[in-house]
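Researcher: I've got a protein sequence and the SMILES for flavin mononucleotide. Could you write out the 3D structure of the bound complex as structure tokens? I'd like something to compare against our soaking experiments later this week.
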Amino acid sequence: MNINGKELAHGIIQGGMGVGVSLSELAGNVAKQGCMGVISSVNIGFKEPDFLKNPFEANIRALKEHIRRAKEISGGNGLIGVNIMVAVSHYSETVKAAISAGADAIISGAGLPLKLAELVKNSDTLFAPIVSSKKAALLLCKTFSQKNGVLPDFIVIEGHKAGGHLGFSKENLVEDTCQDNLQILKEVLEVIKPFEEKFQKKIKVFLGGGIFTGEDMADAIKAGADGVQMGTRFIATDECDASDVFKKVIVDSKPEDIRIIKSPVGMPARAVYTPLLQSLDKGKTFFADKCSACLTACPKGDKIPYCISRALIAAVNGNYEEGLFFCGENASRVKEIMPVKKLINELLSDCNAALAR
Ligand SMILES: Cc1cc2nc3c(=O)[nH]c(=O)nc-3n(C[C@H](O)[C@H](O)[C@H](O)COP(=O)(O)O)c2cc1C
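Model: Sure. Here is the predicted complex with flavin mononucleotide in place.
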């Protein structure tokens, strides 16, 4: 498919996964297969020697290097996107740095990316918001069209089965009363249609959150999506940038281990119930005295039981005891770690077979 002048052979986006789960190795190898690999920008400089002293500079430096490296690995195939959460400090500077380093697309969620159209103006970088409802899709299309005279190049819908922070209420998630993925897709397609007609432009739509098989992908396409966004399955790949411990936590997880938690940033999130969460339930605190103000939505210092960034960095580094392991609802269905190429080939052939039936 062609997204506003950029060619994407297959409708699969590997969702951005922070901290450090989707960096250049995973994103570059996904792009190599003709899909969109997405680097997560959040605290991407965590391996830089000056990260704790100068997190902003370390993050920008590492982001640019990972975009360069991902493009090198991709060999010019597919597309390299960067996931930049609205909730990160220095959002605008990070978007600008990703554009200047040659990112093909910026994808932003965890808040409404109302400034994104303005920030990508005069570049050939595509831009896409992540939404979990038709309300958000409508508001963003209205804002971008009225303020900037443009529409997003694509939209990612993130349903309630996704990993990481979620755009649904904790009650709905726990009681399993969230709107179904295909229903959200239907409603989003309806609300964006008048904008597409007015601007004579097709907004490509990708559906994510719990997409596990090629059949799931075919269901999304049959319901009008142009493709899918997938996260959890890409963690269990050889090329995923997370530690082997992280991959093992996913492969070993059972349905009862996968919990909805309240993140310090105020949003619900989904993670595996490992020792960190077990200890927090008993009233323990972790890294709470070491705040580097990396997320705008996070209350500072002693108002939080743990620093989510440090817990996520611990996970990606393989610290089982203190790590926070984000995952999608279907993590317990993951049974093996495989090369990215095998996973994508399986998904595409199963999807094509389901579409032909
Ligand atoms: C470990 C992990 C980290 C994630 N981090 C982010 C993130 O930093 N920003 C974001 O927009 N989404 C994040 N997500 C969501 C994914 O990009 C993706 O949309 C979602 O997981 C799709 O659902 P699935 O995992 O069921 O395929 C994360 C998901 C996981 C599992």
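Model: Residues 55-74 form the longest helix (20 residues). The pocket of flavin mononucleotide is lined by residues 15-18, 21, 40, 42, 83, 85, 109-110, 130, 158, 161-164, 208-211, 229-232, 326-328, 330 (CB under 6 Å).
Researcher: Great, I'll pass this along to the crystallography team.
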